[in-house]
Automatic annotation (TrEMBL):
The protein's name in its UniProt record: Phosphoribosylformylglycinamidine synthase subunit PurQ
Catalytic activity as recorded in UniProt: N(2)-formyl-N(1)-(5-phospho-beta-D-ribosyl)glycinamide + L-glutamine + ATP + H2O = 2-formamido-N(1)-(5-O-phospho-beta-D-ribosyl)acetamidine + L-glutamate + ADP + phosphate + H(+); L-glutamine + H2O = L-glutamate + NH4(+)
Function according to Swiss-Prot or TrEMBL: Part of the phosphoribosylformylglycinamidine synthase complex involved in the purines biosynthetic pathway. Catalyzes the ATP-dependent conversion of formylglycinamide ribonucleotide (FGAR) and glutamine to yield formylglycinamidine ribonucleotide (FGAM) and glutamate. The FGAM synthase complex is composed of three subunits. PurQ produces an ammonia molecule by converting glutamine to glutamate. PurL transfers the ammonia molecule to FGAR to form FGAM in an ATP-dependent manner.
Subcellular location, record wording: Cytoplasm
UniProt cross-references to CDD domains, sorted A to Z: GATase1_FGAR_AT (cd01740)
Residue numbers annotated as active site: C87, H196, E198
Name of the encoding gene: purQ
EC number(s) reported in the record: 6.3.5.3, 3.5.1.2
Keyword DNA-binding carried by entry: no
Length: 226
């Protein structure tokens, strides 16, 4: 039996179907989860997908963080459930304090949509083992509030503990401190990033590359071999 990976849909989610397809392409079974339901349907991992949950009112992810499903996600993530937050999902993870820091508007004050070059900094998380540390990849990026910020102590801890998972290369698209594109928690089961790996799993679409597929094959291998 293959792994079952849940994808949460909030009001305003845009990429839930794309994420489900990416999970299916990787060989796992996607399971649709609704934001009002606390039941995670016994999934083996959860993805919080991209979009503009609740219209990004107050702050991006600030309202979605209080959706009923998040009570269960937070509890189970703390107990070891693998959780991936993509774009708006990353914002939700910071609002839920599953990941440190926060997200602010892009420093240039414009929405940005481009293919983005990244460097893999940590290939030891539940979601990145099919990469190699130092590997350079291209992943689509699209956001308005993608500027990662944190106080200096938090930044120092992330760097010292190897918890920066991905870093922007060549061009910092939003003013994120330390060129941070994605981070992980200390346990390595919770990862958040602004670029969209679900848009880079098939050669015919997105970047024309499959650089995002290892996110989903990594977690599948971890769960199947657990």
């Amino acid at each position: 039996m293959t792994a079952r990976i849940g994808v949460v849909t909030f009001p305003g989610s845009l990429d839930d179907r794309d994420t489900q397809r990416a999970i299916r392409v990787a060989g796992a079974e996607p399971v649709a989860l609704w934001h009002k339901d606390k039941d995670l349907k016994q999934v083996d991992a959860v993805v919080l997908c991209g979009g503009f949950s609740y219209g990004d009112y107050l702050r991006a992810g600030a309202i979605a963080r209080f959706s009923p499903v998040m009570d269960t996600v937070i509890d189970q993530a703390k107990a070891g459930l693998p959780v991936l937050g993509i774009c708006n999902g990353f914002q939700i993870l910071t609002e839920a304090h599953l990941l440190p820091g926060g997200m602010l508007g892009n420093d240039h004050l414009h929405f940005i949509c481009r293919d983005q070059k990244l460097r893999v900094e940590n290939a030891d998380t539940a979601w990145t083992t099919d990469y190699e540390a130092g590997q350079e990849i291209h992943i689509p990026l699209k956001n308005m509030d993608g500027r990662y910020v944190a106080d200096q102590r938090t930044l120092d801890e992330l760097e010292a503990e190897g918890r920066v998972a991905f870093r922007y290369l060549g061009f910092n698209p939003n003013g994120s401190l330390n060129d941070i594109a994605g981070i992980t928690n200390a346990a390595g089961n919770v990862v958040g990033l602004m670029p969209h790996p679900e848009h880079a799993v098939e050669s015919l679409i997105g970047t024309g590359r499959t650089d995002g597929l290892p996110f989903f094959t990594s977690i599948l291998k971890k769960l199947v071999n657990a």
